[in-house]
Structure formats: C-alpha cells, structure tokens
DNA sequence: GAGTTTGAAACT
DNA sequence: CAGTTTCAAACTC
C-alpha cells in the first residue's frame, strides 16, 4: 500500500519503454515489461510467510516436470492468442498494468477489475480463458491465498487455460503487491531494489524477449538461461512446493499448474525482490503472458471475487484476499457462477488427473455448469485455509488431513451452487467467502455440516434449493457450533440461522472471530478427521485402507451414544474411535477404541438394532440423491446383495456421508485415482463420476455380489464392513449361503484396521 | 414440527 | 486441567 514502489515502478517502466531494445521487443509482442517488476515486489510482499515450511508437497516434482511443457504450451498459446488477437490485448494489458501500478490498495484493485470487465469486449478472445478461470474452484483460491492460482487450476480447458493460469499467478502476485502486501520484507528490499529495478527490468525484458524468440522451444530457453536460473527455478519451485504442500491436493495441483507457468515467475519475483538480481525464466514467461494475463486476470477477478482466503494467521494472504473479494463483489454474478462451477469440477478433475497426467491432458473441457452458482460461495470454506495451515503445522499432508465433514461441506456447497438459483446477490456474497482453502480435504467435515434432514431436503427438492446450512439461534454463526462457520463457509439463504454474522458483509467480524478461535485452538478449523491415505494413492493400496484408516484428531467423548450415533464425531466422520477417544461403552462400527473394529458382529448387531430402523427409513428417503461420497459409500455398500443394505448403508454411515467419506476416500482414490477427490467429490462425481459410482449405479442389486467378488475393491469391502448391515451380511451364519467375497471383505476390514498406518502421511 | 437427547464448544 | 454452561445438531415422537 504505502510502499514507495509505485514511484519506482512507474519510472522503470517508462525506461523500458524508452529503451530501443524494449521497443523492439514490444514491437514483436504485446507483452508489457512493466509487470515483471510488480511481480517481484508482490512476491516479496507476499513473502509467503505461511508456506515457508511446507516443502513436503509431493507435487513439486510434477511442477518441475510440467514446467517445460506448460511453458511451452503457454508460449504457444500466447503466440496463438497474440496472432489471433493482434494488438487488442496489448492495450488492455497496458491498462491493467497501469492501473496496477497506480493502485495502492484494494480500491485500485477494484478499479482494475472493473476495467478488465469493461475491456472484455476486446479481450473476448481471452474469454475462453475466463471460462477456464470460472471453472476454477474458489476453494483453491482460498487455499492458495491466491484466487488466481485457483483460476489457473481451473484451466481444465485447453492450452489457453494454462496460459491463464500463469497469468493468474502473475496477476495475483501483482495484485498482492498492489494491495500493499509490501509492508513486510519488501519494503526494505524495495529500497534496495530501487536502483536495481531498472536492471532487473531490463534483464527480465531481455530474458522475456529471449523467450519470445524461443517460444517454440521452451527447453532451449531454459538451457540457455544458465545454471543460475536453474538454481533459482529450483528454489522457486521449492517455495511453491512448500506452499502447495499446505494446500489440499487439488489445490496444490492447481497451484502447481499455475505455478508451473507462473510460479517460476513468482519465485523469481521473490528472488529478484530480495536479491534484485536476475530475472528468471519465469519473469520472462510472465512478461510474455502478461498481455493475455491482464485480460484474463481481470476476468478471473470478476469471476472469483472470493478469495479471501483467510488463514487466520496469515494476514498477507488474507489481506490480499480481501482485496480480491471486494473486487469480486463488484463483479458480475453470472461469470462467477460459471467460474465457480467450472472451478469446482475442473479442480476435481484436474486433481484427479493431474498427478498422473499433466494438466494439459486433463483439460477436458469439463463444461462448467452454468446453472449452479450460488451455493458455491457458501460451500467454499473460508476455513479451508485454516485447514491447510493446520496440515502444515501438523506436518501431515493436505490430503491426509481432509476431513469428511469438510468434504461434505464442499460437496454440499457445490450441489447448492449447481442447484441453487438464488439471487445473484447471494452469489456474490458467497463468492466473497474468505477462505475456502481445502475443499477437497474438507470432505470429512462435510458430514457434520450436512445434516440428514437438510440433505433430504436438498435431495428431495431435487435442485437442492437448500444447501445444507446451519440453524443457529444464539451463536450468530460465529462459533464453532455453527457448521457453516466451522466449515469456513459463509451462511447462505438456505441457512435458517438468526442474527447471522457469518456473512460477507461481516467479513471483518468473521475473520476476527476466526482469529480468536484459532488463537485459542490453532486447529479449530482443521479437519477433525485425519486420513492416512490419499485418495489418489490408494487405488492400489485401498484394500488396506478403510474409513478406519482415518481417525478423529481429538477423539470423541461420548457417554451415552456408544459412538453409534452421529452425536459421536468419530462415527459421524465415519472413522473408528482411537486411543484419543474418551468415550464410554464405545461400539463404534468403524472401529472401537479398544482396537476391535468391526470384528465383533455383536457390536454391529447392536448398532444395527439401534439404528436399523432409522437407517432404513432414512436410506430410503435419501437414496434418491447423494453426494458422490454418499453414493460411493452406498456403492460400496451396494456390494451387499440387498438394496436395503445399500440404502441403509449410506444412511447408516450418516446422511452426511461420513461412511461415504471414508468410502469416498478409498473410492475416490480407487475410482479415478484422484488425489483427494473428496472435497470436490461432487465435481468429480458430476464430471467424471467416479467409475465406481457409475459402475454401481448401473449395476443391479443382484449383480453386486458378483462385483464384490470380482473387483472386490478393498475400499468397498471396507465400506461394507463399516456399515452395520454389511456386518449382517458378514456374520457367519448368514454367510453360509453368501459368497466368500463378503466374508473376505470383512476379514480384510478387520485386519485393515489394525494395519492402518493410520495417521502417518503417506508422502 | 416440537420436544428431547447428546456431546462438542465455550466458558469459568 | 477440570467442571460447568451453552449451543446446535441429532434424534425421537
């Protein structure tokens, strides 16, 4: 904000323009050199205070690997766009850049966004990118703290999307710088940079120019750049990797994607800011990409106002996010919807595909559902950021940390988005939701969020007019009592809360409250259930991983429910009780505290007796719709011969789908090998629909047994075992006639529980 | 839909 | 840290 950067920035730019070399470059391409400076500053401003420690992310390698491809693609894209667009983009980009330079804080940002929107006409070619951006899940934005990054992730669409991602990153950085994130280290550095900026700019320009020339051969460019650049890049990648690590897998994936294109630039920017030395390849990329980026970014901003990811502790991001959000508020709703939907889906898809496949391949044109929109905002949790942070703290991988409840939340929100047709206003507000970091991870928590009743409503209504929402009367939705608040989501219309302060309007209050709560308990917004297995990983490993593999962080304290009802967070989360639990008379079907998980048929029987009626009834009601997770769980259950089991199972697990969660975890992984599809489960469901889901859906009840025997995915078996009904099936006396598969599955379950690596992060 | 039960969250 | 209160979901009728 206050930083002297502006003046500095402004001068260097002019110099660039003046220089013959720059002129030459400019003539060649519309790219604006000026941004590079900002980028560096922004990075510095960003300083990534939060991410620093997280280098553990497994994706890092991917980033590097993909870098070349992406860059190459990006460059190609840029070329194509430039050719097609001609000079149109340049002016726009210039506007954006100029605005950015001038802009100090949020207001400026808003202006920028407006400008972008206004200029859309010229930018239309970019709209494709915008679409991609629209597809980006907000959540990712929150998580990363950089909505743009999310936008990048959304790039499910073609190469354009990739370019967008890079641009998004760049812009994000720029915005952050604009917003005044500089406050921290940058200020000091900036002083240093003051003189150096010019040099840096030149270098960046030169490097950028080189890229331009070399476009087609990204590899060549990299090689030419020299060892220094490489080292820098590595560092950069590391930094981003660390950031990514915090984020849930999907987010991470998105980030990676974006980073791959733009991250290098960001990293470089940071380095440059700090060292004010050499512009790196990334900067080049940024420059090259910038023109398109500007347009895209503006569009993205419009689409993703959100972002305020608010990790309670990490203000730099939050501030940025806020700025973004506010911006978003001014933006058009329709796009938001699109973007959100697309994002969610794309994110899920991308996440699924990403690890194995480079994003480019992923880009299925997942057609974002334009329809859904509103719920999105709410669904995306502000707190997701917190989750990510928590994951950092814990050192557990993001994916692992996912809580079913959060996932459900996400799913629900997604569903709501799709289904809800609420007024655009709501959408906007929702979009503002500060943090929705790890939607993916959150799936576990979702369970808690989505009460069966609500779900029923949602399901029954078909469109799901009502997203699952809270019903708070006295907490003002500013306490963890509130599911929405706990999930990091703003309350939405469907909520029947009174005196609700958990709305974008009261963002400040919400954030402050969150901080308070987090100060009390840093993991307050972290997923309550820790999964040991990543969804994606598990495909092969699934057999061993059951819901039991996950455990409630703190454990339950049940006294009367015997951990057989949703009162029990462990049960609700679809996980077994653990040593951490202080429950009495634990009969948790997912695993008792004492370690005897499902084995005891007796326990199951008890559970069954206790819950069968309700379950069956509910299952019937619910059966019609369910989140992916639920379906998955059901499917898993479906393995059971009778339909009742199927329906019952999900129900039994809980409408929220905890069982599904667990199942999801396994299923999701198995189905698509998705990473942590959980959160986006829905998206995955909609888009790709996990194989399992489809498979099961198609499969008739009678067929199920065969399926079990044949595929007998471990996850499924586990699920069965988890479900009380499955137990029924399993009991020896019953089993006599039943196929061995069932029994075996059961046995597996039992074994699996003890074997669970439990909480240890895979990667 | 109202009322009860339950256990987490919040408070002391 | 333990005990109590508050709260909203889960559950029952």
UniProtKB/TrEMBL annotation:
Q: Which family does it belong to?
A: Belongs to the lin-54 family.
Mind telling me which InterPro entries this protein's record contains? CRC, Tesmin/TSO1-like_CXC, TSO1-like
Q: Which PROSITE patterns match?
A: CRC
Query: Species name for this entry?
Result: Spinacia oleracea (Spinach)
Which gene is this protein's source?
A: LOC110798344
What keywords are assigned to this protein? Nucleus
| Subcellular localization | Nucleus
Q: Where is the composition biased (Polar residues)?
A: 350-365, 709-724
Return any one Pfam family short name.
TCR
Gene Ontology CC terms:
nucleus
Query: Domain CRC spans what residues?
Result: 466-591
Q: What is this protein called?
A: Protein tesmin/TSO1-like CXC 2
Task: Indicate the principal place this protein occupies in or around the cell.
Answer: nucleus
Comp. bias regions, Low complexity: 277-290, 662-676
Q: Name one GO molecular function term.
A: DNA-binding transcription factor activity
Q: Where is this region: Disordered?
A: 80-132, 272-293, 350-369, 651-684, 709-747
Basic and acidic residues bias located where? 87-103
């Amino acid at each position: 904000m206050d930083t002297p950067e502006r003046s500095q920035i402004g001068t260097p730019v002019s110099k660039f323009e003046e220089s013959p070399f720059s002129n030459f470059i400019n003539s060649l391409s519309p790219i604006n050199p000026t941004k590079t400076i900002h980028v560096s500053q922004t990075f510095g401003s960003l300083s990534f205070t939060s991410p620093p420690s997280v280098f553990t992310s497994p994706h890092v390698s991917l980033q590097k690997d993909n870098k070349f491809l992406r860059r190459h693609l990006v460059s190609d894209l840029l070329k194509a766009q430039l050719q097609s667009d001609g000079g149109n983009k340049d002016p726009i980009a210039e506007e954006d850049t100029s605005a950015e330079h001038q802009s100090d804080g949020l207001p400026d940002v808003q202006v920028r966004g407006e400008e972008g929107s206004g200029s859309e006409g010229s930018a239309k070619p970019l709209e494709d990118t915008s679409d991609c951006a629209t597809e980006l899940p907000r959540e990712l934005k929150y998580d990363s703290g950089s909505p743009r990054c999310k936008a990048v992730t959304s790039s499910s669409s073609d190469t354009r999307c990739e370019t967008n991602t890079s641009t998004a990153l760049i812009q994000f950085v720029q915005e952050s710088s604009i917003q005044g994130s500089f406050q921290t280290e940058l200020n000091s550095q900036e002083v240093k940079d003051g003189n150096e900026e010019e040099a840096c700019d030149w270098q960046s320009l030169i490097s950028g120019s080189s890229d331009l020339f070399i476009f087609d051969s990204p590899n060549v460019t990299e090689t030419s750049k020299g060892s220094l650049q490489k080292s820098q890049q590595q560092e950069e990648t590391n930094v981003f990797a660390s950031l990514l690590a915090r984020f849930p897998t999907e987010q991470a994936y998105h980030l990676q994607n974006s980073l791959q294109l733009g991250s290098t630039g960001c990293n470089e920017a940071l380095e440059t800011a700090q060292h004010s030395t050499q512009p790196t390849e990334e900067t080049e990329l940024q420059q090259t990409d910038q023109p398109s980026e500007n347009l895209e970014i503006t569009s993205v901003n419009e689409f993703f106002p959100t972002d305020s990811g608010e990790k309670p502790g990490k203000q730099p991001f939050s501030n940025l996010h806020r700025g973004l959000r506010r911006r978003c508020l001014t933006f058009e709703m329709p796009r938001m919807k699109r973007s959100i939907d697309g994002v969610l889906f794309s994110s899920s898809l991308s996440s699924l595909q990403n690890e194995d496949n480079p994003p480019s391949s992923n880009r299925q044109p997942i057609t974002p559902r334009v329809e859904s929109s509103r719920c999105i905002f709410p669904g995306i949790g502000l707190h997701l950021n917190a989750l990510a942070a928590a994951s950092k703290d814990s050192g557990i991988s993001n994916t692992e940390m996912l809580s079913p409840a959060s996932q459900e939340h996400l799913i629900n929100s997604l569903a709501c988005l799709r289904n809800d047709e609420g007024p655009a206003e709501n959408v906007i507000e929702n979009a503002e939701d500060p943090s929705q970091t790890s939607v993916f991870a959150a799936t576990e928590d979702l369970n808690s969020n989505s009460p069966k009743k609500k779900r029923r409503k949602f399901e029954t209504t078909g469109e799901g007019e009502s997203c699952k929402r809270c019903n708070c009367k006295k907490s003002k939705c500013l306490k963890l009592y509130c599911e929405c608040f706990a999930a990091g989501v703003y309350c939405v219309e469907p909520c029947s809360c009174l005196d609700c302060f958990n709305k974008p309007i009261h963002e400040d209050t919400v954030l402050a409250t969150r901080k308070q709560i987090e100060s009390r308990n840093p993991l307050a917004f972290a997923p309550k259930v820790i999964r040991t297995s990543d969804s994606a990983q598990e495909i092969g490993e699934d057999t061993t991983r059951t819901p039991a593999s996950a455990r409630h962080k703190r454990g339950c304290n049940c006294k009367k429910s015997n951990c057989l009802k949703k009162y029990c967070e462990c049960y609700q989360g679809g996980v077994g009780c653990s040593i951490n639990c202080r429950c009495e008379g634990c009969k948790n079907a997912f695993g008792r505290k004492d370690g005897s998980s499902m084995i005891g048929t007796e326990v199951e029987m008890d559970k069954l007796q206790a819950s069968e009626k309700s379950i069956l009834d509910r299952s019937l009601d619910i059966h019609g719709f369910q989140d992916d997770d639920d379906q998955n769980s059901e499917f898993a259950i479906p393995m059971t011969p009778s339909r009742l089991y199927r329906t019952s199972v999900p129900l039994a697990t809980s409408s929220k789908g905890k069982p599904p969660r667990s199942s999801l975890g396994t299923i999701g992984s198995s189905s698509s090998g998705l990473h942590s599809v959980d959160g986006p489960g829905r998206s995955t469901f909609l888009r790709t629909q996990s194989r399992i889901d489809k498979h099961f859906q198609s499969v008739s009840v009678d067929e199920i047994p065969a399926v079990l025997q044949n595929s007998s995915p471990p996850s499924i078996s586990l699920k069965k075992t988890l479900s009380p009904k499955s137990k029924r099936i399993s009991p020896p006396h019953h089993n006599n006639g039943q196929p061995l598969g069932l029994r075996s599955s059961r046995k597996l379950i039992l074994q699996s529980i003890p074997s669970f690596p439990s909480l240890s992060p895979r990667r």
